[in-house]
Structures
1.
Amino acid sequence: MKIAVTLRLTPDLTEELELTEDGRDIDREWIGLVLNEFDDQALEQAVLLKEAAGAEVTALAIDGEGVERLLRTALARGADAVRRIPADDAPSSARALTPLYAAAVREIGADLVLAGVLATDDLHGELAPFLAAELGWRQASAVSDVRIEDGDVVVRQEYSGGRAAQLALTLPAVVGLQTASQPPRYVAGSKLRDLLKVEVPEMAVDAAPAATGIEPATLALPDRGAGAEMIEGSADQIAERLHAILVERDMA
Amino acid sequence: MRVLVHIEHETGVIEDTAFELIAIARSLGGEVEALVMGAEPEALAGQLGAADRVVAIADPALETYLPDAHGVALQAAIRERNPDLVLLSYSTAGLDMAAPAAHACGLPLICHAVELRQDGSALDVRSQTYGGKLVASSRVPIPAIAMATPGAARAEDGRLDGIRPVETVALPPGSAGAIRLVESLAPETGGVDLTQAERIVCAGRAIGGTDKLAVVEELAGLLKAEVAGSRPVIDAGWLPKSRQVGKSGVTVKPRLYLMAGVSGAPEHLEGMRDSELIVALNTDESAPIFAKAHYGAVCDMFDVLPKLAARLKDS
Ligand SMILES: Cc1cc2nc3c(=O)[nH]c(=O)nc-3n(C[C@H](O)[C@H](O)[C@H](O)COP(=O)(O)OP(=O)(O)OC[C@H]3O[C@@H](n4cnc5c(N)ncnc54)[C@H](O)[C@@H]3O)c2cc1C
Ligand SMILES: Nc1ncnc2c1ncn2[C@@H]1O[C@H](COP(=O)(O)O)[C@@H](O)[C@H]1O
C-alpha cells in the first residue's frame, strides 16, 4: 500500500501575532513556523500504519521557506520518501491548493492520504474533504485512530460529547487526522544531522491552484469586549488575590 | 435570501448547534429551511417551528451518520432547493460534508464563522482564525456555504415547537456503501463524570507531562475539584479521555473552572464557556482565553498554583 501524508508549516500560536499594514496577513518576518499539529499527528499515524501493516509513506509539502528541513524531519521520523511541490505565489488556502496535491497524489499512486484535520488559519475549507472530492475518493475527518483491515481502512471518527464510531472506508480514501493512535515520536538531533545533506526532491505537477470564490480576508485582533479582569502583581500577589476570590465565593 | 440549515441530531435529539444555526439564519431575514436527514426525519419536524419549512430526506442509509451518504444527501438538497446560503455547524459532519458540497456545487465556502450579515448580493462574515487569536472579515458572494462556530448564536433564539410544511428530497441511488459503520462508541466514562462536577481545575498543554500533574492534582484536592485537561493533554496520554473538555470531549458548566496553561482555542471554549466563574492563568498576555475568562493573570502556572495551594492549606 502507498500512503501520502500532506505537511504544512503554520505560525507558532504561542507567539504574539502582528498584522501586516494592509491587514491581509500576519507579519511573517519574525514569526516562528511549526509543523501544523494535526499534520504532525497524520505523519505519525502514517508511520504507525507502515510499521503495523507495511506501507510506503511519502510526505508531500508545497515548497516554501523551511520546507526542506520539515521534510528531512519527516524522513527521520520514518517516511520513506519526501517531495516538495513547487508553486509560484502559492496561495495559502487548502481549497486553492487541492488540485496540486491531487496531481501529486495521483503521480505517486497513493491509495490512502492522511492529512491533518485542519489548519487554524484556513478559512475556505479543509484539505482532506476537498482532496477527496477532487479525487473522487472516500473521506472521513476528525479521526483519532487508523487501521487497515481486510483491505479497508478502519478509522475512529470523533463527534461531540465524546462519542465516536468505527467506520470502514473502501480504498482509495483520504483521512483528516485529529490524533494518531500514539503520540508523535521524538527524533534525536543526531538523526536529523545525519540527514542534513539528503536531497529533498522536487515534484513539479501539471496543475494550477483553484479559485476559492472569496477574496482574501482582512485580519484584526479580536475585540476583547469586557474580557477578564486581569490580576496584576507578583506570583504571591496573584495567589493572594485568587485565594480572596475563592473565599468570597465560599470555595476555599 | 433563502437559507438552508443543516439540522444535526443524534438518537432523536436535535443538537443545540442546529438551533444556533436557525437563529443565525433568522437573523439574516428571509426564509429559513431546516434540512433534516435520517431514517425517519419527519419525527423531528415538530421541533423545528422556528424555520419556515422543513426539508426532509428519509432513507434507511441515513439512520446513523456516515460521511458519504449524508454528504450526498446534502448535495441533493442543495441542488433541489437552490438556497442562497447553506449553513452547517463546525462539527465532524460539517467538516466532512461542507467541502465536498462546495466542490460539487461550485460554491464558495467560508469556515469558522461567528457573525454573518447580508450586504446586497454578498455576506459580510467574521470568522475566528489562528486558534481564536485573530478575527478575519470576508466578503462572500452568494450563493455560498458557511460553517459556523458553535456558540455563534443562542440556541434559545432558534428553538420553537410548531408544525411547518415538510418538503421531501430523495437520496440519490448508490449514495451509500463505500463507508460502513463498524461500531458506535459511547463516550469513555472512566469513573468520572465532569458534566456533574461543581468545580474543575483544567490543565493545558503547558503542564508538559504527568510528572508535573501533581501541581494541579494537589490544588484540585484542596478545592474539592475534578481535574480536567485540554485535548493535547489527553492526546499525550497525561490524562484519560474521560477528562477531556471541549468539542470532542465533554461540555461542562461548573461553578468554578480554574484553567492553567490553556490558550482558549474555540474548540476548548465550546466545552466550558458557560461555566459560572472562569479563572485563567497563562504566560501569554495575548492568549484568547483572556477574552472569555472572568479573572485572568499573566503568569507562570508553576509559580502561582503552588502558592495558591499553600494558601488554601492554611485557610
Ligand atoms: C475537530 C477538533 C476538535 C477539537 N476538540 C478539542 C477538545 O475537545 N478540547 C480541546 O481542548 N481542544 C480541542 N481541539 C484542539 C484545539 O484546537 C486546541 O489545539 C487545544 O485546545 C489547545 O490546547 P491548549 O490550550 O492546552 O494548548 P496550547 O494552545 O498549546 O496552549 C498552551 C498555552 O499555555 C501557555 N503557557 C505556556 N507555558 C505556561 C506556563 N508556564 N504557565 C502558564 N501558561 C503557560 C501558552 O501561552 C499557551 O497559551 C480540537 C481541535 C479540532 C480541530
Ligand atoms: N496551503 C496549504 N499547504 C499545505 N497544506 C495545507 C495547506 N492548507 C491546509 N493544509 C493542510 O491541510 C490540512 C487541512 O487544513 P485546512 O484545510 O487548511 O484546514 C492540514 O493538514 C493543513 O496543514
Note: The first strand of chain B starts at residue 2 and ends at 7.
2.
Amino acid sequence: MKARAFSYVCPATVAEALDAFAAAGSEASFIAGGQSLVPALALRLQAPECLVDIGRIAELRGISQDGEWLRLGALTRHVEVHDHPLIAACAPLLALAAPFVAHPAIRNRGTLGGSIALADPASEFPAMMLAVAAEMEIAGPAGRRRVPATDFFQDLYQTAIEPGELLVAIHIPVARPGHRCAFDEFARRRGDYAIVGCGVMLALPADVVNEARIAFLSVGSTPLRARAAEAALNGRPLDAAAIRDAQAALASDLDPADDEQVPAAMRLHLARVLLGRLLGKIAAAA
Amino acid sequence: MDLSISLTVNGVRRDVALDNPRVTLLDLLRERLDLTGTKKGCDRGQCGACTILLDGRRINSCLALAISHDGADILTIEGLAQGEELHPVQAAFIAHDGFQCGFCTPGQIMSAVGLIREGQAGDDPERVREAMSGNLCRCGAYAGITEAVLEAQKTLADAGRRDAA
C-alpha cells in the first residue's frame, strides 16, 4: 500500500515550521526521522494532507551542557544518545536504554524528539524522561514553554503538545556523581517492543536512598512512574528488605491490562522481577 | 512544488524529478533508478531487506522519504564490488553459506558493512547477532551470516593494517 497523497514543505527555522503548520490547518503533520510516521503513512494509519519536514532545522540539532542542565535538540538521533560522551557523562540512563530502542538501522534515523512527541507507552525514551526528570521545551504560536515530564505524558499518544506546537528540545538535569541508574526490559526478541521495561535512577549519599525515580514502559496507556515503590526506597539503605518492599509496592503503582502477549498478572510479576534485578544491580555496584 | 532532488548513488550523481513526495528511497532506487538489488520485504521497517547506507550509516530505505534526502550519499549492494572483485563482506557470505534463497542477502550485506563501519561489535558473536537483529532471514541462515560478518570484519581490519603499514 502507498501513502495517501500529501503536500510537503521543508522549512529552515522553527518559526517557518510553525507558520507552515498553521497554514496547512489541522491536517498537517510534522515529520523528523520518520521511523514511526513513514510506516504509519504507508499503512494509511495516518493520512495528513501536508508534511512539514523539520529535518533541516539547525536549531533542533545538537547536544550541549549548560551548567546543571543538558540540552538535547529534538532532532538528536537515537544513535547519538547511544554514542555521545555528554550523554554517557550527564544522562547515563539514556545511554543504557538506547541499545534497546528498535534496531541499529532505525536508531540511525529515529529522533529523540520524535519518540517523545509520539509518546508510545511501549517506547524506552518517553518512560526514561520520567526517570531523569526531563523537561520538554515546546514552541508554538504563543511562544515557548517548558513542561516537566510528569505533566507531559497525558494519555495514550497524548502529550502536552497542542496541535500546531513543536517539541524543540529536551532538557535534563545533569546527573551528579552520587546518582546511580540501571535499565533493562523483557522482550521476546531483541529489538521487539518490550513486554515490560524499567529504568531506575536514584541518589545514594551515605548509603541511604533518596530522589528515587522509577519509570516503567509497556505497563499502561502512558509511561508510568512507580511512586509507591519510590517511597518504599527513599530514606532507607538499599538492602534486601527495601528492595522487597519496593517490589511489593508495585501492586499499587501498576494496573496493567491483559493483552495478546501476556496476562496482566504476569506483566506485574515481570515488572517486580525487573525492578528487583535493577535495584539489586545498583546495590551490588554501590 | 519543486520535487527534484540530487543524490550520489554508488559514487554517481543522479538528478531525479520526483512525481510525488510520497516516494520512498526504496521505491526511488528500484523503480526510478532500476537498482533492484535493494529488496522490498515488509515496507514497514521490520525486516531489513531494504537496508542501504545513507551518508555512511545503515538505514531502512523503506522508512525514508526520498524528498527528505536531497544531497544524500547512498551506497547500495550494486556499489560494493570493485568490478569483478567482490567486497570482502560479499565474499565472506559466499564462503560461509550466509544465505539460502538470497532475498534478504543484499540487506544483510549492507547491514553488515554498516555494522563493521560502526566498529562496535568486536569479535563477539553475540554482539554481532544483536547488531544484525534488524535483518530477518526466513531461511534461517543466521549461523552462517554471523560467521561471515566476523570473518569479513577481520579481513577488512587486516587490510586496513596493511594499508596503514
Note: The mean pLDDT of chain A is 96.
